[in-house]
Design brief:
alpha/beta, binds 2'-deoxycytidine-5'-monophosphate
């Protein structure tokens, strides 16, 4: 097997990471890996079992025992069950942010993510991909947008899924989650020093995709390593 390429995309909630990472992966023929979905799957399992968001020992055990498959079109399968919709509920967003602060949970899921990246070329998105999971990634992008723009996008997403919400409430929850994700002790959300910063505020998805493809091409050549 030839050398695999890793494209790491980090950034706060609602910056457009999932959509753009998926589009980039399709274009390049790489696997798309949504690491947030893995934390969400653990949170969902914990909720169903009635395990508290702060029960570190049991949550780590769940993270280790979980069988999480990330399928085509962004489908998420937990222990054989398709949980793609269930993990997008607002209380699971909150739960995922809580369980992701637990070092044992992170260790277990990071190991799974590293294994996935060793086996294939991937576009992997999350909060700590360029800093912790793959510090040697060939391409690192930090995708950002203003909180208001990110809340507007999240509101649109929710509405499209038949879950109307209040702008002020979505903005408030998003800021609280970002604050927790950026200030936790273990692997906080942070731009890697060698990541390219992209502010997608006011840009269309096509424009962001073009910007990201340009960055990828500057560091790789048709998905192969640059030799010059
Ligand atoms: O990207 P998302 O909203 O689906 O992520 C859900 C939560 O998981 C988010 O609050 C932060 C956390 N997360 C993380 O800590 N590290 C990652 N690599 C991905 C997500």
């Amino acid at each position: 097997m030839g050398k695999t390429i890793t494209i790491a995309i980090d950034g706060p909630a609602g910056a457009g990471k999932s959509t753009l990472a998926r589009r980039l992966a399709e274009r390049l023929g790489y696997l798309y890996i949504d690491t947030g979905a893995m934390y969400r799957a653990v949170a969902l399992w914990a909720k169903r079992l009635g395990i508290g968001w702060d029960d570190a020992a049991r949550l780590e055990q769940l993270a280790r025992e979980s069988r999480i498959e990330l399928g085509a079109g962004g489908r998420v399968v937990l222990n054989g069950e398709d949980v793609s919709e269930a993990i997008r509920e607002p209380d699971i967003s909150e739960g995922a942010s809580r369980v992701s602060a637990i070092p044992g949970v992170r260790r277990a899921l990071v190991e799974k993510q590293q294994q996935m990246g060793r086996e294939a070329s991937v576009v992997m998105e999350g909060r700590d991909i360029g800093t912790v999971v793959f510090p040697q990634a060939e391409v690192k992008i930090y995708l950002d947008a203003t909180p208001e723009e990110r809340a507007r996008r999240r509101l649109k997403d929710l509405a499209a899924r038949g879950l109307p919400a209040e702008f002020a409430q979505v903005l408030e929850e998003m800021k609280r989650r970002d604050e927790r994700d950026s200030t936790r002790a273990d692997s906080p959300l942070r731009q890697a020093p060698d990541a390219v910063y992209v502010d997608s505020t006011g840009m269309t998805e096509d424009e962001v995709e073009q910007a990201l493809l340009k960055i990828v091409r500057e560091r790789t050549s048709n998905g192969k390593e640059v030799t010059n």
